[in-house]
Q: What sequence folds into this?
């Protein structure tokens, strides 16, 4: 279910994977209004490719529940859902806390050196840092399922995370909390680290309902043509 299309050997070389990545980015980053019909012919004409890779990409996106529909009835984008987003954050919280309950020395030994601390004034840089941190912690378990769950959670919460980081007060709070968490891990204080994670995820989960409303409103009122955005994504993938 997780990462199996992007990482599958050979997939990167075919058009279906390129279409999959471009469409997935369109949906994940709120670049297309909810309830938009993703017409196979419309997309294939825009991308100047056959309908086959587009159809295959949409089938995989529906299988992974990024969109809804079927080849017969058509495919549609879906609204952000408060419960679903909250559940995704909850999964990552549980996994991080489970890792921190282990041996602090073992965690420090196996946790790769994190990249340079981000520019805390740049929401995109902070978002990438937070995702990388969570995934690297999960990877220390050597449990592929846990690592994939965190990776998938990061993707599904990416747009909401970006919206959250647009708020100066939240950006400041996250900077303080993450700086403290890194210090706690360095001190091997696992109990306080677990408490810190609980506080951070409780804060974001509490703001999810209003972020979902904002996200659905923004996506529904985007002025850019989603087909033009898709073409840009296609060129990048």
A:
């Amino acid at each position: 279910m997780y990462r199996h299309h992007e990482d599958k050997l050979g997939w990167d070389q075919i058009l279906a994977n390129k279409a999959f990545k471009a469409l997935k980015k369109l949906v994940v980053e709120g670049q297309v209004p909810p309830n938009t019909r993703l017409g196979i012919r419309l997309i294939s004409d825009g991308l100047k490719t056959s309908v086959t890779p587009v159809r295959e990409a949409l089938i995989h996106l529906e299988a992974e529940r990024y969109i809804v529909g079927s080849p017969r009835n058509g495919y549609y984008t879906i609204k952000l859902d408060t419960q679903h987003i909250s559940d995704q954050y909850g999964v990552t919280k549980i996994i991080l806390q489970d890792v921190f309950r282990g041996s602090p020395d073992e965690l420090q030994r196996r946790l790769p050196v994190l990249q340079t601390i981000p520019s805390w004034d740049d929401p995109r840089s902070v978002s990438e840092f937070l995702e990388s941190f969570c995934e690297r912690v999960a990877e220390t378990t050597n449990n592929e399922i846990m690592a994939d769950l965190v990776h998938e959670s990061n993707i599904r919460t990416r747009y909401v995370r970006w919206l959250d980081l647009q708020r100066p007060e939240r950006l400041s709070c996250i900077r303080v909390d993450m700086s403290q968490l890194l210090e706690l891990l360095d001190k091997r204080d696992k109990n306080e680290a677990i408490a810190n994670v609980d506080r951070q995820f409780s804060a974001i989960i509490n703001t999810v309902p209003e972020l979902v409303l904002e996200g659905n409103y923004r996506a529904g009122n985007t002025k850019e043509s989603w087909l033009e955005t898709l073409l840009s994504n296609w060129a990048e993938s």
Summary: The radius of gyration is 19 Å.
